[in-house]
Amino acid sequence: MSIVKFLTSKTFFKHLAIAFGIVVVLVFVLLKFLDIKTNHGEEIPVPDLSKMQVKIAQEKLEELGLELILLDTVDFRNDMPPYSIVEQDPKAENTVKNGRKIYVKVNAGEYDDVTLPALKGKTFRQVSANIKSLGLKEGKITYKPHLAKDEVLAVTQKGKTLKAGDKVKKNSTLDFVLGDGKEFYDEQTFDKEETTIETPVEDAGE
């Protein structure tokens, strides 16, 4: 049988119809499989993971068919428990498909250390701006007789005198001892009131 006759024969069209039917069935089965695999049409509400420890959040997501991915640790926030989740993406109540990754950031365990710069000998105005930029707080201010007014004479924390290079926790409070600008006058007063102590002279007869 020639090719032309075969292509126009009933046998060819019969085989073609069978082949077409097989393709349709295979496509239908494949689409059904993909629907089941991806839970087509089924979406899962993302739970609120805020303030949860990573392990607990991970278990909760796994129960829902979701995956937790830890991105980073953020600077310590005192309004959140240490090592708890502070940010998540997607946000809570968004709907996602099964197997979706939920990205989170975790609170640090405590405040970071800050290296104390040279503060002694500077004016309090200079120092105030400096410590605020470092995330530190101003505490108690006391004055001591000194020639220069508001010059920083000492920096302390909980009674301990600090120096340049010491480490303190971010967000901690520093106390300051400042000059009162009155030492010059106090010295004048002291000079006026100064008395001379004479050494007793021994009697010549003794």
TrEMBL record:
Keywords: Membrane, Transmembrane, Transmembrane helix
Segments forming domain PASTA: 41-108
TM segment ranges: 12-31
Pfam (any one): PASTA
Gene3D superfamilies, alphabetized: 3.30.10.20
SMART domains recorded: PASTA
PROSITE patterns linked: PASTA
Domain of life, source organism: Bacteria
Protein name as it appears in the record: PASTA domain-containing protein
Protein species of origin: Flavobacterium okayamense
